[in-house]
Amino acid sequence: MDEVEETETLKHQEETHKRKNPKVVFWNFIWRPVYWFRMLGDELHWSFVLSVVIVYGMNQGLSVGLSRVSTQYYMKDEQKVQPSEAQVFFGMIQLPWVIKPLWGLLTDILPIIGYRRRPYFIFAGFLGVISMLSLALHKKMHLVLALLSLMTGSAGVAIADVTIDACVAQNSISHPSLAGDMQSLCGLSSSIGALVGYSLSGFLVHFVGPKGVFGVLSVPAGLVILVGMFLREPHVHNFSYRRVNQKFLDACKAMWTTLKCREVWRPCLYMYLSLAVSLNVREGMFYWYTDAKGGPSFSKEVVGSIFSVGAVGSLLGVLLYQNVLKNHPFRDILFWTQLLYGLSGMLDLILVLRINLKLGISDYFFAVIDEAVTHMIGRVKWMPLLVLSSKLCPPGIEGTFFALLMSIDNVGMLSSSWAGGLLLHVLEVTRTQFDNLWLSILIRSMFRIIPLGLLFLVPRSDPNLSILPTEMLRTKKGDDIPESDNIEMAPLVNGT
Questions:
Q1: Is the pLDDT of residue 372 over 60?
Q2: Where are the transmembrane segments (predicted)?
């Protein structure tokens, strides 16, 4: 017995020594992500892991980072549109995300050639490639055709997003212990992709122009086609296409029944209104950044670097919510974040009125602080709404109903973008006239405070408890609704 105890003591001392050895700790830190990826590949198959990295990291994260700056310069320099018009056009580009439930229903209940996911990846990839190449190769495309191409590219990203969400959800059900790891993989891929995309966007727009960047964006879309070719997926046998119409109708009836529930429609109304009244005048600020006389006159590279800092701020917001705020009641978090969100809008006012220069703070440094703070607060404000949305989904239609909630949010952001464009138009903020830009920023910041009066629509409950009535939680729809394996997740990066 003494020899056994002595052996165990020696092993314990050796393990302790390894843990305290700086070299061992350093190499463990370096190789840990590799081991983590290898573990996910072994458990979930390498094709799934690579698909998440491509769709979230490349097609959504990197592409959104590149496309935002390139599209802004394309509208300003190639199409010669006014800031108010650009604001409205950017809202139109997001329209394919509004009908996200349709994409979810299609991939969930309508297999093609025996596969539920792979054909939709291929279709989404072709949409992206065709739309981006048409923009890149056309010398002088009409504005209407350009908008249609950009909307088509946005549809490709949305369809791929919905489809990979379904794949993640399926694996979360079959491997529940790895659900957190898969969420981390999605978030990590999209965050890194967005950071790289924003960091490179300004340089690429400067060297190859906006249309050249559109050509580059065809590459991530092409990789989505490859995802549809190599993704491992079981073949669906003896599928009855005659029941598709009935399944659509049953799903719509189930969603309508849920929406009529008081515990559901009230938070949904708050989510829409809180987003819709937060007027978006981003394009007015962008034109002022680059074209205003007496303004900062930021270069393309500087604009890209500022947006990349915003991506870092957004990531910090996620970490702050996850580690500090996730267990606080919804109303408490939304009250303080909405208040801070309104106050953060005043940073733009300080910049436009040039108060920062009087304080001895350079335009670039202040713009970086503004972008980081605004995105961090905006992300912290957004996270409890995502958690709230997930708790409003009844059993059996979780996937499709969550997609419906996300489409409601997208309608809110669309309303915000169009209302902001109207505000810029009324105040006569143009490509060369920015005298009233400060007023639009002040009005926007005041409107951001309005949702504080609507917080009574949000449940005061603990975020770890259920919100839906008990009888609704027990409801199961059986075979009359789409499969519950399509549990949609919110897009981790904003659309193009």
A1: yes
A2: 44-66, 120-137, 143-164, 185-207, 213-231, 269-290, 302-321, 333-355, 401-425, 437-458
* Cβ pair 66, 213 in contact under 8 A: yes
Range list of H helices, 260-360: 262-276, 282-291, 300-320, 330-344, 346-352, 355-358
Give the CB-side neighbour count of residue 478, counting CA atoms within 13 A.
Answer: 2
- Spatial distance between the Cα atoms of 62 and 194, rounded to a whole number of angstroms: 5
Residue range 268-274: mean pLDDT, rounded: 90
The answer to whether the beta carbons of residues 77 and 135 sit under 8 Å apart is: no
Average pLDDT estimate for 106-117: 80
Domain boundaries, the chain: 2-32, 45-480
Structure confidence by residue, pLDDT tens digits, 189-241: 887 888 888 888 888 998 999 999 999 999 999 999 998 888 888 777 777 76
H helices of 175-243, where?
A: 179-230
Question: Using CA atoms, how far apart are residues 74 and 462, in angstroms rounded to an integer?
Answer: 46
480 pLDDT tier (thresholds 50, 70, 90): very low
Residue written as token pair 């980081």: 372
Opening angle at CA 478, ends 475 and 484, nearest 5: 85
What CATH architecture does domain 45-480 belong to?
Up-down Bundle (1.20)
Between vectors from CA 67 to CA 400 and to CA 288, what angle results, nearest 5°?
A: 115
pTM score, two decimals? Answer: 0.75
Q: Decide if 126 contacts 157 (C-beta within 8 A).
A: no
pLDDT band at 398 (very low <50, low <70, confident <90, very high): low
143 residue type, one letter: L
122: Cβ contacts below 8 Å, ≥ 6 apart = 224, 225, 228, 229
More confident residue, 2 or 88: 88
pLDDT at 477: 42
Q: Which two tokens stand for residue 334?
A: 């939304």
347-354 contacts at long range (C-beta below 8 A, 24 or more positions apart): 347/373, 347/374, 348/285, 348/441, 349/438, 349/441, 349/442, 349/445, 351/296, 352/285, 352/288, 352/434, 352/437, 352/438, 352/441, 353/438, 354/294
